[in-house]
Amino acid sequence: MKKTPPAPRRGAPSLPGFRTSSDTRTVWFSRNGCVVWHADGRREVFIGGTAIGSFDELNPTPRNIALVMAAQGEVVLEDLAHAFGVTTETVRLARRAFETGGLDALMKKRWGSQGPWKVTPKLRAEAEGHFAAGLTVSQTREALKKQLALSTLRKLHQAWEAQRAAAAARAAETPEQQSLALAVAEASAQEAPGGPGARAPSTVEAPEPEGASTGAVMVKKSESPYVAQAVDGRSLLVEGPRSARQVSFLGAWMMVALAAKRGLHEAVQAEAHPEAQERESSLRLAVDAVTVALAIGQGCVEGVRRLAHRGAAALLQAVRAPCPTWVRQVLGQAAAEGHGMLIRARQSASLMRGAVSRAKDVAVFYVDNHLRPYTGVRRLLWGWRMQDKRAMPGTTDFHVHDAEGRPVYRVATQRHDSLGKLLLPIGAVLRAAVGEGRRILLCFDRAASYAEVMAELRDADFDFVAYERKPYPKLPLHHFRGRLVLDGKLVRYCERRANLGGGLGRVRRISLRLPDGHQVNLLASSAVPAHRLVRIMAARWVQENAFHHAVRRWGLNQLDGRCFPEFEADAVIPSPLRRRLEAELADTRLEEGNLRRKLARVTNEDAEVVLEGSLAANLDIQRRLEARRAALPKHCTVEDAGLVGELHHHQDEYKALIDTIRTVAINAEAELAAELADAMRRPREAKRLLQNILTAPGDIRVRPSSIDVALDVAALAAERPAIARLCRVVTSWKLSLPGDPARRPLRFKPQI
């Protein structure tokens, strides 16, 4: 595997002022896009300072997805191919596949040889065993009876060496993990659970070897940075659906079945282990456990421990409920090597297409950024958190919601980039998912309402609407001839053209006069009528409500992952020296104001002389600080800031996978609540009643052609007709459990 980037091309783009002779791993393909080549062979793609994906040479699918996303806008294709380490023909083929079949074509297309992939998990394990024994590539090929070609074995050997080097580096930095006791299944693989229609359970991992202690397993540090990997114990046994009575949290089956219908389990299994079918059972069980834990209000993976009750076997279709450590292990392995990003991309694309299918003529998406605070002991970059009106350490997340306030996409940035930098890449992701045939309207607030950003979106053929930043002239009342009613109040509006300045052209300006006399201006580049744009922007509260609900109900701000890698030495960050100088200058100016206030009120001549001397010294300090500030850049590398080994960032692959489950669950909750609200006297309380349904216990009766579920929901007498109607509607959807091989439809009904 090639681990070093190619030599710079003549005339290739670079970041002025930051690329040095020691920066040999960053290759720029545009003014805001680059590829970072790591020593272990992994490569990360950044646009606008945000990682949009990572890949290695053995897995071309994430590479080509990032390649197509990076090709949006003004990019020289030769520079793009050079940065990714591929030929221009590879770029052309990837773009052609995307143009003809969209994002799905890139995921399904077989790159390279069209023959069957012969490296099965068994052959890979045998080859790595021979490598560990000291055999060469040629000797390994003979030992495997020439089942694999020399070129394939060379790639496997390079990948194996890279993994060993990375593991050795982590072992040198991290103290040895202590042995822990983990819960294991007490059931035997030879005895199948009884009951009509029951099947013999299938194990999801290897059985316990001889000499292992019963009831405990030894763990060691995993290849995945998220969890400790069990290596010496039995794992949980899975089984099919079975009849049972009084199963706790049985109402969560609605959420599990609807998430499976939306493709969650298929995406996790297809992207995480496309050639390891024996891992499907463990992935299904882990995803089901997290989905149920979130549905009953736990908010994080640790809430899986609440499922360890008497009916857990029937609820999760396993011998017993898994522990949180086991779930983190399975999902951590699925999220490793960038698979978490691919799973999120697949599900987000599906949600985006669903939002477009519900739209009429133009697809509306709200985009906003929120800082996810961090309160641990690690040193992270600080960003501005609007809710607290102050800067805090953490990670800035950019969220995309549809017109109904349902989340469809989230991307994290460790450097707290501005919303304006990410709007065009987010628009490219939306266009890649929904295709070129539909108009996309991006709605955002004043944080990105800058002339350059809006001109860039307009030139890229995106519609947008945003609030205009002050100052702008206040118009007289007679200009506002248009009228519309918002929330029962009359709002007047007028429209004209606004010049962005600097030769950037013109956009639409819609001025609103509110009932209290205040004026608010909107800037837009869209053919949508003005009154409809006003209503779209007035509906931005659905996104703010969605943020609040996702944090309180679904644990959106949870840390989830426990891995904090260090920033690279040549990573560009806001200069801490300049920040400290700015703070010192602000304090000095505050002191100047206090001195001038005292000087204006002083009556004693001696005190006046003292104050004038202090003021002169203060002004002299300000001049020196301003002179120093002019020589300090706003950004610098981590090495120049002296923070090598101290500054960390939160790795996002594992959280991306957990947030994908959250996003699917939130969309499923919105769909169920919409059906429930139609039959309620108080439709605003639909989600509260739905929580009672999801946490309700019930009985299971497995039939040859269906599975009957009778729920015992805690509800008022006036709410029971709505519950009965929801059960009928969900039954008509013919949902099935992901762990049921017969795919028998679920039939829900409330207990009388």
**3D shape:** globular
CATH topology of one domain: Transposase Inhibitor Protein From Tn5, Chain A, domain 1
> How many β-strand stretches?
24
**Fraction in beta strands:** 15-25%
Which stretches are poorly predicted, pLDDT < 50 over at least 5 residues?
Answer: 15-22, 111-116, 174-234
Most strands sheet? 10 strands, mixed
CATH homologous superfamily label of one domain? Transposase Inhibitor Protein From Tn5, Chain A, domain 1
Oligomeric assembly: single chain
| CATH second-level architecture of one domain | Alpha-Beta Complex
Q: What is the CATH C level class of one domain, in words? A: Alpha Beta
Structural category:
alpha+beta
Mean pLDDT: 83
* Tally of separate helices: 21
Write down the Rg: 29 Å
User: Termini, distance in Å?
Assistant: 64 Å
Helical percent range?
A: 40-55%
Structure overview:
- The chain has 752 residues and is of the alpha+beta class.
- Among the domains are: 26-108, no CATH class; 121-173; 341-554, Transposase Inhibitor Protein From Tn5, Chain A, domain 1 (Alpha-Beta Complex), CATH 3.90.350; 576-632.
- Helices cover 40% and strands 18% of the residues.
- It is built from 21 helices and 24 strands.
- The strands form six sheets. Strands 10, 11, 12, 13, 14, 15, 16, 17, 18 and 19 form a ten-stranded mixed β-sheet that branches. A four-stranded antiparallel β-sheet has the order 1-2-3-4, covered by helices on one side. It has a four-stranded mixed β-sheet with strand order 9-22-23-24.
- A hairpin with a 2-residue loop joins strand 16 and strand 17.
- Helix 1 crosses helix 3 (88-108).
- The longest helix is centred in the C-terminal third of the chain and has 27 residues, at 605-631.
- Residues 15-22, 111-116 and 174-234 have low confidence and may be disordered.
